[in-house]
Write a sequence for this structure.
């Protein structure tokens, strides 16, 4: 998708650095010692990744498929294999609802901001950057719609349902410590009082990109 391609260079850079850091020289080393050394490197990066991050949340604009908009964003990578996005504008999550649901979209957008909790599973095939499978937890909140208070639920795709949902952390670029984090998610569906209203398309794809505070 076009939004994903905008960040392809960033991902490629991170993956290239990761592969080069994971390959070790020295034929005299045993396979077991190489494995143990590599695990220590991965654990070092996992420990270093924990903390608060600041950056931007990027999303596809209404005006053009090739144009991106952004808002300030903050999140935490926790030391318990979870990630928390804070104060995410709900209007960004529902920006690409169909024209026939504009009234519902407006009501949901007016609900303000929400936190998104994400469970992580580390992919041990790579280090520097670390690659993480993501399992975003659904969010629920009340909205005033059609003369009553209604309950909205928004679910997200996981790494199991699409390869476009992922997280990456890069501790250093060559010899410079950068502590960057890149996360890609997108909403899967919106429910109103338990009934499916919208299944989101790829246009709803979201990317968080920032650095450790």
């Amino acid at each position: 998708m076009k939004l994903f391609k905008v960040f392809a260079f960033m991902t490629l850079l991170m993956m290239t650095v990761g592969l080069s850091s994971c390959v070790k020289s020295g034929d005299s080393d045993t396979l077991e010692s190489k494995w143990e050394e590599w695990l220590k490197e991965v654990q070092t990066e996992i420990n270093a990744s924990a903390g608060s991050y600041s950056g931007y949340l990027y999303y596809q604009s209404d005006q053009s498929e090739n144009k991106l908009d952004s808002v300030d964003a903050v999140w935490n990578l926790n030391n318990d294999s979870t990630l928390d996005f804070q104060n995410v504008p709900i209007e960004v999550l529902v920006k690409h609802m169909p024209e026939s649901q504009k009234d519902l979209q407006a009501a949901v957008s007016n609900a303000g901001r929400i936190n998104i909790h994400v469970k992580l599973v580390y992919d041990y095939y790579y280090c520097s950057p670390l690659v993480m499978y993501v399992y975003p937890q659904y969010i629920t909140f009340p909205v005033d719609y059609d003369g009553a208070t209604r309950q909205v639920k928004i679910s997200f795709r996981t790494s199991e349902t699409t390869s476009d949902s992922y997280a990456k952390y890069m501790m250093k670029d060559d010899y410079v410590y950068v502590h960057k984090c890149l996360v890609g998610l997108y909403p899967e569906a919106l429910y109103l009082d338990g009934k499916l209203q919208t299944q989101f398309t790829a246009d709803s794809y979201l990317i968080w990109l920032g650095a450790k505070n």
